[in-house]
Specification:
31% helix, globular, single chain, binds succinic acid, alpha/beta
Length: 504
């Protein structure tokens, strides 16, 4: 197979991280490969709450960084959190400059929501719950006009090209069943998360951890793959993916109740519904497991204003035949965000020469064991741009690549079995027996090659969840319910197909 050569930066993924990277790489030429049309099928566009940044008079980047550290349960890199928080206000202003229509106060400031585990109201929003779509629309418009960027849609990652020394020299992709090799001077993975590995997810179901798997096969270090965040309030009406019911509703005073109308979070945490996301998710999980049900009651706090205040959630409820102005909303936890990922430095470099990563598929060190709400779009904008600038500086002659087979695909029935098992055994509450059962299932799915992206990503999560015999942040082990004395990062690498641990 011949390669399509290009002496620029290949960006794989069309979410906020990938497009921020593409814009920031100017004037270097960039080719963006996206599996779907830009703006569709990426988690960034589905984000409701908004972008966290210290924009209020009573707020500072130091306070934002401190909340980020506290949420991350001992595993956030303090320097990276400080960098994220310091660059936050500028990143939001830049997105506003691109045309993102943030909600404004009469004097031109940002309308800011408070979300769980934030000590201040600091989430810049758009039209109540439409931040992701609006921000992406503004960014996409600029990407489409940028002379240095070429966008190819409908192109899915099937692996990385490497030279004999292991450097990344491009990517293997598929469009309409045709495999194509793209060679480039540098590659940025911005492929998003792993929500599609779970039966209940708030993210596009096509996100199957292929970027994570491809990077692992290329020799990159994977950090903390066991840390998967479950959003407490997905709309529980049997839709796949499950529509998100934004946390901003709880920030505006909506309460969680069970079938008997009891506010069960009051007894669990002083901040009740605004407790850290993992605590709220486990409380809802327990209430449902006990048969008492869980509902978000916005009748009093939002009431008649619901359609204008939260149009996306309102539309999802109405499509399910519910009217949240008069009925509590049935909710359940669902996979929402992957804190783990390809370990990077502050500029997205992965340690594999020529390979950068940004956004949800990366582990930049800012989320630790539990991401602070609305820090993900911020991370995508800040670290995406940093990766774009760094990749643009990377210059390497186009080198020959070793022929490797593309990542194997998983059949639809196998994927469904995987998703159910991941939700049951690597979900909100985990234990050794469930994780053992899951690992054994992974051995039996697929074509036996072990080279399928979803199976590699699932194994990274399941094996590291099995090995972490403690509860920390979003990782809760019913058989080890207490955090260990020391917060230790998981760092693993695939060597000859097996998972090998690295010292932190
Ligand atoms: C939400 O709107 O509840 C989601 C915000 C986030 O996950 O950061």
């Amino acid at each position: 197979m011949d390669a399509l050569d290009f002496d620029g930066v290949l960006v794989i993924g069309g979410g906020l991280a990938g497009l921020s990277a593409a814009l920031a790489a100017a004037p270097r030429r960039v080719r963006v490969l996206s599996p779907v049309a830009l703006g569709e099928g990426c988690s960034s566009a589905w984000a409701q709450g908004g972008i966290a940044a210290a924009l209020a008079d009573d707020d500072t980047p130091d306070l934002h960084a401190a909340d980020t550290l506290a949420a991350g349960a001992g595993l956030v890199n303090p320097a990276r959190a400080a960098l994220l928080a310091a660059e936050g206000p500028g990143a939001v202003q830049r997105l506003a400059g691109l045309g993102a229509p943030f909600d404004r106060t009469p004097d031109g400031g940002f309308v800011l929501s408070r979300e769980a585990a934030h000590g201040r109201a600091r989430v810049a929003r758009v039209g109540g719950d439409q931040a992701g779509r609006a921000v992406m629309a503004a960014v996409i418009a600029h990407v489409r006009q940028a002379a240095h960027i070429e966008v190819l849609e409908g192109v899915r990652l099937r692996g990385l090209l490497q030279d004999t020394g292991g450097a990344a020299v491009g990517a293997l992709t598929e469009r309409d069943g045709v495999i194509t090799a793209f060679r480039a001077a540098a590659v940025i993975l911005a492929t998003g998360g792993v929500g599609g590995l779970y039966a209940e997810t708030t993210t596009p179901a096509a996100l199957l951890g292929e970027g994570l798997a491809a990077a692992a096969l290329a020799g990159a270090v994977i950090a903390d793959p066991e840390f998967v965040q479950f959003h407490p309030t997905a709309l529980d009406v049997g839709r796949d993916p499950a529509p998100l019911v934004t946390e901003a509703l709880r920030g505006d005073g909506a309460h969680l109740i069970n079938t008997a109308g009891h506010r069960f979070l009051l007894a669990q945490h002083p901040d009740a519904e605004l407790a850290p996301r993992d605590i709220v998710a486990r409380a809802i999980y327990a209430e449902r497991a006990a048969g008492r049900g869980a509902f978000l009651d916005a009748r009093e706090a939002v009431g008649a204003h619901f359609p204008e205040a939260f149009p996306t959630v309102f539309a999802a409820c109405r499509a399910a035949g519910l009217d949240p102005r008069i009925t509590p909303i049935p909710v359940a936890p669902a996979c929402h965000y992957h804190m783990g990922g390809v370990r990077t430095d502050a500029d997205g470099a992965t340690g594999v020469p020529g390979l950068f990563a940004a956004g949800e598929c990366a582990s930049s060190g800012v989320h630790g064991a539990n991401r602070l709400a609305s820090n993900s779009l911020l991370e995508a904008a800040v670290f995406g741009a940093r990766a774009g600038r760094a990749a643009a500086r990377h210059s390497a002659p186009l080198r020959p690549w070793l022929r490797t087979p593309p990542l194997a695909l998983l059949s639809a029935p196998d994927l469904q079995r995987l998703r159910k098992a991941m939700s049951r055994d690597a979900g909100v509450v985990r234990n050794a027996a469930g994780l053992t059962r899951l690992l054994s299932l992974l051995d039996h799915l697929g074509d036996g090659s072990g080279q399928s992206g979803p199976l590699i990503a699932a194994r990274l999560i399941a094996q590291c969840a099995f090995d972490r015999r403690e509860s920390r942040g979003a990782h809760f082990r019913a058989d080890h319910p207490v955090a260990g004395p020391e917060a230790r990062q998981t760092l693993v690498r695939l060597e000859a197909g097996s998972l090998c641990r690295r010292a932190a």
